[in-house]
Design a protein that fits this description.
The chain is of the alpha/beta class. It has 7 helices and 5 strands. α6 crosses α7.
Length: 182
C-alpha cells in the first residue's frame, strides 16, 4: 500500500499523526477506528513509534489500544489535552506526552495534570500554526514561541529552563533515534 511504501523511507522516524478525532466528527467513528488499527499494525510491521492525534477521544483510543494491542515502539501523545487518568495511562504504557502552548493558558488544567508526571515523560511541541502559547494566544503559532511553553513547564517542575530543555530534548532523541546514530 502507498502509506506503507512511504513509511519505509529510511528518513521516516515514526508513523503519525494517527489517532481518533471526535471533535468535529467529520469522519465516521468506526472508519477512524479501523484506520487507526491498520496504522498501528503498519507501525508494528516497520518497527516504528507512533505520534498519536487524540481529540475528544482519550477514553476511546485507550480502549481501542487495549483491544488491538499497543504500538510496539510506543510514541508520543501529541498535543496532549487529556485528564490525569489519560496521562497516567500514557506514562504507564511508555508514551511521552507532547506539551504545547495550552500549558501556558490561565484556565488550563494541564499544569495540574502534569504535576503527577515527570519531565522524563514529556516532549515540548509547538503544534504550529495552532495553539500558540501566552503571550501570543490568538495569533499564528511559530516555532520561536516554544520558549514560552518551555518556561511554563520548567516553572511547573521548579527546574532551570536549560535542564528542562536537556531532559525533553533527550526524550525526543530517544523517541526518534535522532542524535543517537554514529
Amino acid at each position: 500500500d502507498e502509506l506503507g511504501a512511504l513509511a519505509r523511507h529510511p528518513r521516516v522516524a515514526a508513523v503519525g499523526e494517527i489517532g481518533l478525532d471526535f471533535y468535529r466528527d467529520l469522519s465516521p467513528r468506526p472508519a477512524q477506528m479501523a484506520a487507526f488499527a491498520a496504522q498501528v499494525a503498519l507501525a508494528n510491521r516497520l518497527d516504528l513509534p507512533v505520534v498519536l492525534h487524540i481529540r475528544e477521544a482519550y477514553d476511546e483510543i485507550i480502549a481501542l489500544m487495549e483491544q488491538i494491542g499497543l504500538p510496539r515502539r510506543r510514541g508520543i501523545m501529541h498535543s496532549f489535552a487529556g485528564d490525569g487518568r489519560a496521562a497516567a495511562w500514557g506514562v504507564a504504557n511508555g508514551f511521552l506526552l507532547g506539551i504545547g502552548g495550552p500549558v501556558t493558558y490561565r484556565n488550563s488544567r494541564l499544569p495540574a495534570v502534569l504535576s503527577d508526571c515527570a519531565p522524563e515523560n514529556l516532549v515540548l511541541e509547538t503544534d504550529a500554526p495552532w495553539l500558540p502559547p501566552e503571550p501570543h494566544r490568538g495569533r499564528r503559532n511559530e516555532p520561536a514561541y516554544l520558549v514560552h511553553t518551555a518556561r511554563a513547564v520548567a516553572d511547573l517542575f521548579d527546574m532551570p529552563l536549560a535542564e528542562l530543555a536537556d531532559v525533553t530534548n533527550g526524550n525526543f532523541a530517544r523517541f526518534s533515534g535522532c542524535g543517537t546514530r554514529t
